[in-house]
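Example 9 (inverse folding). The structure is encoded as follows.
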């Protein structure tokens, strides 16, 4: 993923190039008509865009599988498409989820809900009016997703977002928090022979608070995850990511943009990654753009390996070296039992036994 962000200092402005785009098999107007959805300027924009060529996540040769387009009835929250419009991991994929979704989650009010997403294209529309807990679980080999979450004044959302990807997954979530709103997001993703791109954007007004805890496992996969926030007034935005990679690649990126008038804000982004072998790679790209004084801002990144004495101890109990490492790494996903179980059931994957 490559993002174009505003970078201005005095009379100087940075210019970032958009990613190169290619044309490949795509949906048509006839497809859209079959789904009985309105053709509007959003479709015209979608049609004008090719698919992005990302430098860090190679998507060349990946096509859209045949997907059954359905007539999804309106749920009364479709106004969020325009009110909370955003670019996402890339505008092409955000518009694809908006226009061609075969599944739609609609949540309004408060309470506790669990949703299971199947392979395909989905969109999520949520207006949180009081204390709520939402769980979204995905397992499959193809997913394009967009999510829009409006958290009303004084409301609190605890979101558990988990995925097991065995192919291609590109998801983009946008959160807008009103004054006094709270977001606690626990995001877990395991990629297994897959390519995963996740984007989370936090925006809002007033003294809101957002705490985001991404946990990523890359097993013979490439995962590019990005967490972005626009900070105004005096909110708190805290991102703390953990991950492990076995014969794969993880890219953690954060962009915290503190605008003028954000005195008293607190922003933090920290990423860490556990290596299970010498074939793996990890990139941490934390970024802070500060246009105000008198605020707290920090970032950091750490990469490490499992101590040999821990591996030796588990091997003395009958496990192979590879199994020992994966079992220890599964602890990254405390709170995501489905993801831990998946890793533990595939203990011998990721290379030759040691």
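The amino acid assigned to each position is listed next.
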């Amino acid at each position: 993923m490559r993002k174009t962000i505003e970078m201005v200092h005095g009379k100087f402005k940075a210019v970032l190039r958009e990613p190169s785009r290619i044309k490949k098999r795509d949906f048509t107007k006839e497809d859209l008509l079959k789904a009985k959805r309105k053709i509007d300027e959003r479709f015209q924009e979608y049609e004008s865009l090719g698919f992005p060529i990302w430098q860090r996540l190679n998507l060349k040769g990946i096509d859209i599988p045949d997907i059954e387009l359905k007539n999804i009835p309106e749920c009364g929250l479709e106004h969020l498409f325009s009110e909370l419009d955003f670019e996402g991991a890339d505008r092409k994929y955000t518009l694809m989820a908006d226009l061609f979704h075969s599944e739609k989650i609609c949540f309004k009010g408060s309470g506790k809900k669990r949703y299971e997403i199947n392979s395909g294209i989905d969109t999520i529309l949520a207006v949180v009016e009081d204390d709520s807990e939402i769980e979204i679980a995905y397992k499959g080999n193809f997913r394009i997703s967009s999510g829009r979450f409006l958290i009303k004044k004084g409301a609190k959302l605890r979101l558990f977002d988990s995925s097991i990807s065995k192919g291609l997954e590109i998801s983009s979530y946008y959160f807008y928090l009103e004054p006094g709103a709270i977001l606690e997001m626990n995001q877990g993703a395991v990629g297994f022979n897959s390519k995963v791109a996740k984007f989370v954007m936090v925006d809002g007004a007033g003294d809101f608070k957002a705490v985001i805890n991404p946990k990523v496992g890359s097993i013979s996969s490439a995962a590019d995850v990005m967490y972005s926030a626009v900070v105004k007034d005096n909110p708190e935005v805290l991102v703390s990511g953990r991950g492990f990679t076995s014969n794969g690649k993880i890219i953690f990126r954060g962009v915290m943009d503190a605008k003028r008038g954000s005195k008293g804000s607190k922003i933090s982004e920290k990423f860490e990654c556990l290596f299970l072998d010498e074939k793996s790679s990890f990139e941490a790209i934390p970024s802070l753009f500060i246009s105000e004084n008198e605020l707290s801002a920090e970032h950091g990144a750490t990469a490490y390996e499992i101590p040999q004495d821990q591996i030796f101890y588990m091997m003395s109990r009958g496990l192979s070296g590879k199994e020992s490492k994966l079992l220890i790494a599964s602890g990254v996903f405390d709170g995501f039992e489905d993801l831990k179980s998946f890793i533990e059931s595939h203990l011998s994957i990721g290379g030759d036994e040691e």
